């Protein structure tokens, strides 16, 4: 896509033999540019220019806000105002928009989180192409000048840094590579707001230029322009057009086709994790697009029992569910199975972007609340056998608890839950994030949580 020259080590006209200290002082004062990428002749691709950058920018301008909005919706779906759910307790003003997350439609979280993850992955080739197209701007020298230039540079650095941080941490998280020296959830939330603020400033500054640049060339004409007829764009004040362009090795239509094909490939290799049946196995870029063994428990597992310290001995005949309300009740699995059971087909979706729809059978949470003498409109605090981890205990709102489809699930697709799917019992609430459908439940507390 580009051919870059190392450029001369000495700027034309620079006195030979001048001391390093004098050169450094000249660089800092902006009288001269440092060597290498700080000099215009270093960047030689004949494709870079305002028009190409604006095409990539337009795609990102359409896609990134949708990724951001669905991500913020996902945060609201965690109901972080409830005890035990707030994974970013110092969020401050960043949680101003939170609202009560509904249980209907049951597919809402599946759609919003699927869009957030799949669209984010699909935009990665476009983002990389956009960064490639503007990389000379990142090495502009001197770094600052007028107040307007300083604001533009600051917004650009925050925009690029924020985008890279959000995409890298998001991709690592959905691939289950928990290598962060910090908590992913608050970092991703704060990073999103920093990125959005920088994006708003950048769009306000650059939108007129984007519109002008897009109008400067015909998109259809560019798609018909061959490599032989590819020419650099006219010189621009932003320094994107190469000062000494090299001969083109690919046309602009070829570059656009390459980026578009990359995005479609990523889409095709990741979207299958949101589907059931054989399509799931096409998700080669997703950790959950695989086979989990024969039978009714063949669907995605986020965390196995072994990974969170749950062993079969804890879930055997001695297991009891403690239900707390006006009185305390302890129930064996056999006693739960003897209660009225209800069956619903409900989706389950996770923050990593995968989702599936299965048939769940269990006891209504409202019946368990009534059995403990709890208020009919109470929420519930759920505790798991899971050892440690952010979601070993969560709160469900009164709206979630009182929905007749909210179950303490005992079976899935007509069979007992497998251990990795939460045996002997798990929560299943319509439209709740997967981590709130707690597995290996040991206690339901319908009283006010501590």
Question: What report would you give on this structure?
Answer:
With 450 residues, this protein is of the alpha+beta class. It has two domains: 20-268, no CATH class; 306-445, Sulfite Oxidase, Chain A, domain 2 (Alpha-Beta Complex). The chain has eleven helices and ten strands. The protein has a five-stranded mixed beta sheet with strand order 2-1-10-5-6. Strands 3, 4, 7, 8 and 9 form a five-stranded antiparallel beta sheet that branches. The longest helix has 33 residues, at 184-216. The protein is elongated, with a radius of gyration of 28 Å.
**Percentage beta strand:** 5-15%
- The average pLDDT value, as a whole number, equals 90
The oligomeric state is single chain
**Count of DSSP strands:** 10
Number of domains: 2
Distance between the termini: 59 Å
Using the CA coordinates, give the radius of gyration. 28 Å
Largest sheet: 5 strands, mixed
Roughly how much helix do the residues carry, as a percent range?
25-40%
General form: elongated
Brief sketch in words of this structure:
The chain is α+β, with helices and mostly antiparallel strands and 450 residues long.
Give me some keywords for this one.
single chain, 450 residues, alpha+beta, Sulfite Oxidase, Chain A, domain 2, five-stranded mixed sheet, five-stranded antiparallel sheet, 38% helix, elongated, transmembrane helix, membrane, Oxidoreductase molybdopterin-binding domain-containing protein, OxRdtase_Mopterin-bd_sf, OxRdtase_Mopterin-bd_dom
